[in-house]
Structure formats: C-alpha cells, structure tokens
Design brief:
By secondary structure, this protein is mostly beta strands. The protein contains five helices and 60 strands.
C-alpha cells in the first residue's frame, strides 16, 4: 500500500510537470480569484489589455494581460475589496472599484472598453458575487457583515457565526438557533466538520470538534462549505475556513469591550400553579421559567487588535488578544450556595506577511488559546469543595508560501503544528481525599471524585500546484497532497485514597474482590440520605496513547469547454493508518470521485445553473484507535452493614476487573457520504442574488462498537463494526440520510444596507446521533436496536434566518439576527437495570420506546438587535453599542424530559429490578415529570459595549 501511495503521488507530480503552455486558475485555501472578459464597443474580444488590481489586503499590485479571447485571470488574491484598472493604447482606460473577492470563489467582471484617448471611465462594481464556476454550496461572511450583522458578544465567535449560514441547524437545547459551536450541517453530525484557520486544519483530532478560539475582530472573512466540496477538501460535513487579518500599509487597530450582568436581564414569566404545561400535566409549584435572581449570568468581553507595515508592500504585521470572562451562578436549592461557574480565557494571534519578491508571499502565524474554568458542574447539587476546575490550552504554529512561480505556474505549501491539552481535577487540588455522593439526595460533598487529562497533537503538510492549459477549451488543473499526523494521550481515574475511608480494609483491593495482583485502586464513598451506604473502588489506570497518519492525494480540473460552461471534475484518494499498542486495525482507504457542472446562461455571472455529485470520506477521530486500548476496567461496591459496622462486598453491583481493548471487524471500512445537489443562482436586481438549491446526502459505513447478544457475554465480545447486529440477521442498522431545499437571498442594494436571508426546508433522519464512534448506541442486541431510526435532533421541516444591518443618518448602525424553526424532535426513552420489554432480559441502559424523534418541541423564534452610534474624531472612530437579545421576550420550551420512567418492579426472589412490558403494572408506571419542560429560552436581556477603531 505504501508503494501504491508513493506511485500515486509520483504519477500526479509527473503529469502536472509535463503539461505544456500553462497559466493559472482556481483558488487556494486562503485566497480567491478575479476573472473576466474584456471586449470592445461591438462586443469583440480585446487581447493585450493590461489588468492591474490593488487592495488594502494585497501587498503591492497584481497584473494580468488578456489573451486572444479577451479573457484574464488573477489568482491568489487575498479576500477583500479591490480596484481594477484596464489599459490598452488607443482605448479609454476603464476602472472598476469596490470589486469583492471572496474566499474560495472566483469573481467574474466583464469589461467593455471604448475607443478614445486620455480618458478614464470609473464604475463601481457589484458587491454581490455570483461565481459562475462554483458548484459547492457555500456562504461567505465578509468583514463588514461580521462587524455589524453579528449581534452581541454571545455571537461574536466564528463558531456562532455559522448559525447564520443556510443549511446549518441543530437542537435548540444546546445553544439556540445554530446548535452550538459544532453545528450539524446538511444532515451531518457534530463531528463531521473540519475547522480551518488560514487554510490549516485546527480540528480537534480526538473529538473532531472546533479547535482554538480567537479574537473576533482578528477575522477578515469566514466561509463555510456545506455540501459539494472540490477534491481538495475532505470530511462530509461543513468545511469552515477562517481567514485572519494581515495588517496593511497603514497602521490600524481596534479595541472592543462588551458587558452584561443580572441587572441587564428580564425576569422570567411565572408558571401558574395547577395549570397545564405545554405537554399537559400540572406545572408544579409556582415558579419562574427562568429566575434571574437564582441563575445569575455575568460576562465581560474585552479584545484588541493592531497591525501595520514594517516595510510598505513588503512586510506587514498583525496581532490581537482577547480575554473573555463569564460567570454563571447555579441557584441555592439545597441549603448551600454552589460556586459560580467562571470562565476566563486568553486568545492571542501574532502574524507576519512577507512579499520579498513580486508574487512570492510567505506568511507565519501563531495562535494561542487557553482557558481556566472553575466549578464546571454548574449544579445546585455540588458545593465548591466537591466541584472541579478545568484547564484547556491549544496552540497553532503555521507557515505558508504562496507563489506565482512564473506566468504558467501557481504553487502553495503550508505547514501546521497544533498541540492541545485539557485537564479536569478537584477544585481543592487534592487527589487523596475521597469524595462522597449521596444517592438519596443527589448531593456531592467533601471532594470531586474524578481526575482526567489529555494531550493531543496535529501536524499537517499541504502542497498544491495549479496550472492552466488551453486544449478543447481551457483547463485549470490543480493537484496536491494533504498529510496529517495526529496523536492522543489520556488518563481518567477516580479521586481518593481509599485507605482514608473509615472502615476500609486493605483486602478490598485484592484478587479476593476482583482486583488483579499489583493493581492499585482509588475510590470514594456513597451515602443514602446522609447515612453510610457504600464504598466504590476502581483501578488506577495508566496513561494511554494512540495515533494516526493520513495521506490524501487529489487532482481537480476546472474545465471551461466554452466560456459559459464550467465542469469541475475531481478525484481524491485517502489512506489512513492507525497506531495502538497490541491491536491491528484495518487501514482506511477510499477513492472519491467528484463532479460539478455550472452554466453561466448569459456569460455575465447573472444567471447560473449548477449541480454536483460526489463521494466524500469522513475524517475519523482518534476515539477509533482508542477503542482498542487495553486498560483495566471494573469496579467493586462494598455495602455498609449497620449491624456489624463493617462494609461487605456486593457482587451483584460489582464488575470484576478485566482488561478492555475492543476488537475490530476485519472488514471495517471508512464512513463516507454520497452527496448530490442541483440549483440555480440569479442576480435579481441591484446587488441582490437569489439561489435555490436542492440537496441530498446519504451516509454509508457508519461504525459503532457492538457487544453482541447479551446471552453471548458482557464486554468480552465487543467489536467496532459497520454492521452491528449482523450476527443475528440485522443489516443497515447504522444509517443516516438528508434531503433539503435551500433558498438563499444575499442583498446589498446600497452601501448602507446588507442582508442575508434563507429558508431551508429539509428532512434529516438517522439511527444514531453519534459523534465519537463509540457510545451506548448499538452496544447490545436487541436492547439498542429498538426504534433507533427516525428524526435526528437537527430535523426541522422549516428554518428561516434573516441577518443584516442598515446604516442610518447621524452615524447610527442597526444590526439584527432573526431565527425561526418549526420545531425540532425529542425522544421518548426508558431507563432500567434489566428490562423485559421484548421478553428477553437486557442490560441496563436507556432505550427508545417510541421511534427516534417521535415528538416535537414547539416552534422556536428569536430576534436579537444591536444599535451602534459612532463618533468620529480625525482618523479615530468611537462607537457606543447597545444590544438586546430576544427582543420579543419569548420563553419557548427548548428541552423536555423524555424519560418515561422505569415502570420498575422488583423480583421478590432476587430483588432484581426490571421494566414491566405491561404499562399498567409496576410501582412507577410513568414518571410524574415525563413530558415536562426542563429548559426554557432565556428571556430578554441586554448588553452594553464600547468600541474604538483607528
């Protein structure tokens, strides 16, 4: 396989180098392109026209000359606003100003020139880009939109901005409209996204979620590709690319501060006693849906940026820093005040951009993002001494080289190194004192009971080369390699030296009670309504380490057989190897063809038909090899005997220690999705475009750990497989599919108005919400196979989003974000120790007793607004900012208790608790809180801010 990989790369490199008569085309991960046709007054092509572009985002100027067909191409342009000048002897010079070049897109500007001398015609270009070559579904957020149309500090992160993009959704219960910082994109799950910063992959290699945070004002542009990616990009969810600022030929900077506290929060609406809640049943005692006095929330968000020239047009610098601080207070419900959950972070960027020679640019960047979080439980059941502190730290070093090597050759090389760490340990800092959990009251005390830590690392090398050839039309041929090496080390243990527990006997941690010789144990105590009850013991685990290496080779041809038509044909090959001690994991490899077509009906980037079909393999996180790590697992419970005053071993609740390390199906295959789209983009009026795209996404080869039929054993048969249950005749248990139609309008009809509106009508179904490749889904048959397929949490039949800003007289700017959905699903479940729902004894767990997503939350809507008043003094602008979240003061239910209760019944002989399949019998037939709301939309709240720009 290694020989095949080397041969593939060698063949690709040789093919690219041997193609003659090249020019440049396409874009890179950090740039866009400007293309177009120059004609005379009769519409005939004008060859030999010199096109020169300049921009505050570009070091120096770039030039191109039109060919025999009057066509010009200017690649590798940093995203931003450009001025283009078109010159030819004997013809009026033409100038186009305010040309917007977007990341990963080609802006087409056709220019007619007139015969005349010594006169220049200046025209403002359109600020809405319709890329006539684009077949991916993509949304770009420019600097002004980020500054004015992103409302409030809560949304001022690149993760939150994704919620504005069409096709992005998620469960409202996580953090509102977008589903949190790791959104569900066009039916993909939370771990199927890639997060790039300046083109470098910063995705967490373990959880496959977002990596470092950064100051929001450091962002130049954000793009998110939701479906239909070129062969350069992997993973079947969203590809998010954040481009940071680079400085410029003039010194500039900003300082921004946002603040809110409980005084800025409205009181919640009161639930009237005895009246039905939304799902029926009594609302319980009089209480607030949201009590601001009991659940305080305070936030401070300062940040600053500064950049400028070291050498004009040669060497720029840029830096930013941010110190977000938040504090949330859980209510006093049990006679003590829990500690506030505080978050303090530092997010810093340093960046240098060097162009020592024309068309040769080097960029070096450093990102540092770390945070300290105290009282992480945020629970009324946990006092400070029994809570934990979490620290997390991510750094990224990056170096890139972009070059137009000569008139026929474009190249890019990027290197990235991203180490990260996370640790959670007791607030006391004490790993010896055993904590206590009260099973009767649920209250924790004395000390936190867990200590865990992890480190991970991602190293990346990307190399691409782009050429242009004129044969049977024009070809922009791009090829490259993307190499990633990732690693992960972790430790996770109970806190507490059991010898400090009164009544503990050294023999408890011995082979007599299931602990192998030489194993050291740790543990804590459990009480029952304050009375001594149990000791819990588990082995102390050593550190575990795993790694992976992935290689991706790709080639992408952007072929224009005629100037109106674009065919994007791509092929990507990925090969992944895994490293875990003592285990053999099948290597992942997949060939992924991709084909897109775009037709510019009138050849002027106003009416474009586009379509796409392709296979996209998922990046797989390091939980895959970690599943095979051999670690001691098990626990021992010792019950307190009040008569003897001693603890006695409880074999029924204990699990003798054994080595974990699951097995892997010899035919295990990588997961991927087949994606299809068909759409039409139309510039409908002044700087306004409409796009309607139908999408379809079908997932294949999802995998989960499966432990077989319960009668075959407990953990000793667990295997990671694409086909859980196949041994008992179940096939296609793991599946996911998505269909949707997205209507998007982008409008900037005037320089004082900016709007992005979308309506998504979609259906998202699947059999698991898995994001880690190993959870309790499909562990056992038949328990975990009942009612698993249905509507996923991102399924809302209709979603409407409206975001934008308007500039008003007297330097006022009003921004707004509006979101509405028709209601997302919730599941009806049941929890038990042993069940007989199907007439077979099953292991403990939570089961779906109705098809997944069988019930719906009410429709959800929220309007956030922001007003900024600017004052100008010389070259400095001072802005005063007022933000209102949830203007309409809605308190919609966003979470429901879907657990119907155990309907528990005890076997009189053994005392074993099981679920009675007859819903009319049993001690607790239905939980009294089933269907009752557990969380509400936060009511209206306010925020104040101040901003300085120079």
């Amino acid at each position: 396989m290694k020989n095949l990989s080397r041969l593939t790369f060698a063949a690709l490199a040789l093919a690219l180098l041997l193609i003659p008569n090249f020019g440049m085309a396409q874009t890179s991960r950090t740039t866009g392109a400007l293309i177009g046709i120059v004609t005379d007054g009769q519409g005939n092509p004008l060859p030999g026209v010199t096109v020169t572009v300049t921009s505050p985002q570009l070091q120096g100027a770039r030039t191109a000359v039109t060919d025999a067909k009057g066509e010009y191409i200017l690649p590798t342009l940093p995203p931003g606003t450009y001025r283009a000048q078109y010159e030819l002897n004997g013809i009026k010079t033409a100038v186009r100003e305010n040309i917007v070049v977007n990341l990963n897109q080609q802006t087409k500007v056709n220019v007619p020139m007139q015969l005349a001398l010594s006169e220049t015609v200046i025209v403002n270009a359109s600020t809405i880009v319709v890329d006539p070559t684009q077949t991916a579904t993509q949304t770009n957020f420019k600097e002004d939109h980020l500054k004015y149309a992103v409302v409030g500090s809560t949304n001022r992160s690149y993760q939150s901005v994704l919620a504005q993009a069409p096709g992005v959704g998620g469960p409202n219960a996580t953090s509102g409209p977008g589903g949190g910082g790791n959104p569900q994109v066009s039916g993909a799950n939370l771990a199927q996204n890639n997060f790039l910063v300046d083109g470098l992959n910063t995705t967490d290699p373990v959880t496959h979620t977002f990596g470092p945070n950064l100051a929001f004002d450091a962002i130049q542009e954000i793009s998110i590709q939701t479906l239909g990616k070129d062969a350069e990009y992997g993973t079947s969810g969203g590809t998010i690319n954040v481009i940071t600022k680079s400085g410029g030929n003039n010194f500039s900077g900003s300082a921004d501060y946002r603040y809110n506290d409980p005084h800025f929060l409205s009181a919640g609406q009161r639930l009237v006693p005895g009246t039905p809640s939304f799902y029926g049943g009594p609302a319980g005692p009089s209480k607030l849906a949201f009590n601001k006095a009991a659940q305080t929330n305070k936030s401070k968000q300062p940040q600053a940026t500064f950049g400028g020239p070291i050498l004009r047009d040669k060497l720029w610098f840029f830096g930013s820093t941010q110190k977000p601080e938040t504090s949330r207070q859980a209510p006093n419900l049990n006679g003590f005040q829990p500690g506030p959950r505080t978050f303090t972070g530092w997010n810093t960027i340093g960046k240098l951009t060097l162009t020592p020679w024309a068309n040769q640019t080097f960029t070096g960047r450093y990102l540092d993002s770390h945070a300290n979080i105290s009282n992480i439980s945020f629970s009324s059941l946990v006092p400070t001494e029994a809570d934990a502190r979490q620290t997390q730290h991510t750094k990224t070093w990056g170096l890139s080289y972009d070059a137009i090597v000569n008139a026929h050759w474009l190249a890019n090389v990027s290197l990235g190194h991203t180490p990260s760490s996370l640790a959670a340990m007791p607030m006391t800092g004490n790993l010896s004192t055993p904590g206590n959990q009260d099973v009767g009251t649920g209250i924790n005390s004395i000390n936190y009971t867990n200590n865990q830590g992890r480190t991970s690392k991602r190293d990346e090398l990307i190399g691409t080369s782009t050429y242009y050839i004129e044969r049977f039309g024009t070809h922009g041929l791009k090829g490259g390699v993307d190499y990633n090496k990732t690693s992960f080390s972790s430790i996770n243990n109970a806190v507490g030296d059991p010898s400090l527990i009164p009544g503990f006997d050294a023999s408890f941690c011995s082979p007599q009670y299931g602990f192998p010789t030489g194993i050291t144990c740790s543990g804590f105590t459990l009480t029952n309504n304050g009375q001594r009850y149990q000791i819990y013991l588990q082995p102390l685990n050593p550190q575990a380490s795993v790694d992976s290496k992935s290689q991706a080779y790709f080639v992408q041809d952007e072929w224009n057989p005629v100037s109106r038509a674009t065919i994007r044909a791509g092929l990507r090959y990925e090969y992944i190897t895994w490293g875990v001690s003592g285990k053999s994991i099948p290597n992942f490899k997949l060939l992924q063809p991709r084909l897109g077509f775009a037709y510019d009906i009138f050849n002027n980037a106003t009416s474009v038909v586009h379509s796409y079909a392709g296979k996209i393999m998922d990046d797989n996180q390091l939980t895959l090899p970690n599943f095979g790590v051999a670690q001691p697992l098990g626990w021992a419970f010792f019950n307190y005997n009040a008569t003897t005053g001693k603890y006695v071993y409880n074999p029924g609740a204990s699990l003798p220690i054994f080595l974990t390390g699951g097995n892997y199906d010899a035919n295990l295959k990588p997961s991927y999705s087949n994606q299809y789209s068909l759409g039409f983009t139309q510039r409908i009026w002044r700087n306004t475009s409409l796009d309607v795209t139908a999408e379809m996404r079908k997932q294949h080869n999802l995998f989960e750990d499966y432990c077989g039929n319960e009668t075959a054993g407990f953990f000793d048969t667990c295997i990671l497989t694409n086909q859980p249950g196949s041994d008992v005749g179940v096939h296609n248990a793991l599946r996911s599919d998505y269909r949707g139609v997205i209507t998007k309008i982008e409008s900037r009809p005037y320089n004082w108005l900016d709007l992005l509106a979308s309506w998504t009508r979609a259906k998202s179904r699947g059999s698991t919400e898995s994001t880690q490749n190993q959870n309790t889904a499909f562990d056992f048959y038949p328990a975990n196979f009942i009612n698993t397929y249905g509507y996923l949490t991102d399924d809302a039949r209709d979603r409407v989003k409206l975001d934008g800003y308007v500039r008003l007289p007297f330097d006022f700017t009003v921004g707004a974000n509006y979101y509405w959905d028709s209601g997302t699903p919730w599941n009806v479940t049941q929890t038990a120790s042993l069940t007989s729902v199907t007439g077979v004894d099953l292991p403990e767990g939570t089961y779906l007793i109705e098809p997944r997503g069988s019930r719906r939350l009410p429709h959800y809507s929220q309007l956030d607004m922001q007003v900024q008043k600017d004052f100008r003094v010389a070259n400095t602008k001072l802005g005063l900012i007022a933000t209102v979240y949830n203007v309409m003061n809605h308190e919609t239910i966003i979470s429901v208790n879907g657990n119907a209760g155990a309907r528990a019944k005890a076997d009189p002989t053994t005392g074993t608790v099981f679920i009675d399949s007859n819903q009319q019998t049993g001690k607790n037939r239905l939980s009294r809180t089933f269907g009752q709301p557990t969380a509400f939309q936060t009511p209206r709240r306010y925020e104040a801010g101040i901003r300085v720009e120079f």
